[in-house]
Amino acid sequence: MKRLFSLAVAGAFALSAQAFTTGNHEAPYPVRQSFAREFGHVKTVNWAPVKDNLTKASFMLDDQEFTAFFDNAGDLVATTVSLQKHQLPIRLRLAIDAKLGSVLLSEMYYVEHSSETAYYFNAIKDGQTKTYQAFANGRMTEVQLGWKK
Q1: Distance between CA atoms of 115 and 132, rounded to whole angstroms?
Q2: Rounded CA gap, 110 and 81, in Å?
Q3: Cα-Cα-Cα-Cα dihedral of 18, 20, 24, 27, to 10°?
Q4: Contact 114, 125 (CB under 8 A)
Q5: The pTM is what?
Q6: pLDDT, mean of residues 59-77
Q7: Distance in angstroms (rounded) separating the CA atoms of residues 88 and 86
Q8: What pLDDT is stored for residue 21 in this prediction?
Q9: Average pLDDT, whole number, for the chain?
Q10: What pLDDT shows up at residue 34?
Q11: Residue 78: what pLDDT?
């Protein structure tokens, strides 16, 4: 799995890792510790297993929906942030309009990794849904994701 880097999120480290268990799934201890270091000031987190080796943490921060994925060792693999179309870079919005025409966009989010940010979204037209990976420069490709946020 390609290593993805986390978003720069300012956080306080005052809350303990034990305080982040909600729902029926309890994240592994190293995951809870890592979450506390990265997003310590978040009070409500929904944990869910994604695969045998991944845990998903869903939470709200500054009125935005975030999802963070951790491996069982507690390493942050990826952070996604839900978006609205108007929050996409202008060149990407123009490229979507030019290449896809009038489509309904859903499940828009971005993932920061190494030196660039990848945007993902579903385009729905005539009852068909296609998932795209795109970049700020307007480059887009249809993708089949192995997992969804």
Answers
A1: 19
A2: 6
A3: -70
A4: no
A5: 0.63
A6: 90
A7: 6
A8: 41
A9: 79
A10: 94
A11: 84
Tens of pLDDT, residue by residue over 90-138, are 999 999 999 998 889 988 988 876 678 899 999 998 889 999 999 999 9
According to the 3-state scheme, what is the secondary structure of the chain?
Answer: CCCCCCCCCCCCCCCCHHHHCCCCCCCCHHHHHHHHHHHCCCCCCEEEEEECCEEEEEEEECCEEEEEEEECCCCEEEEEEECCHHHCCHHHHHHHHHHHCCCEEEEEEEEEECCEEEEEEEEEECCEEEEEEECCCCCEEEECCCCCC
**Token match 């034990």: residue?**
18
What is the identity of the amino acid at 77? V
CA atoms of 63 and 85, how far apart (whole Å): 16
- Residue whose entry in the numeric block shows the structure tokens 């507690």: 74
Higher pLDDT, residue 44 or 1: 44
Length of the chain: 149
| Both tokens assigned to 50 | 């994604």
Specify the residue for token string 């978003």. Answer: 7
User: What's the distance, CA 26 to chain centroid?
Assistant: 20
Residue 57 identity (one-letter amino acid): A
User: Distances from the Cα of 92 to the Cαs of 34, 63, 72, 139, 143, in angstroms?
Assistant: 33, 23, 35, 8, 17
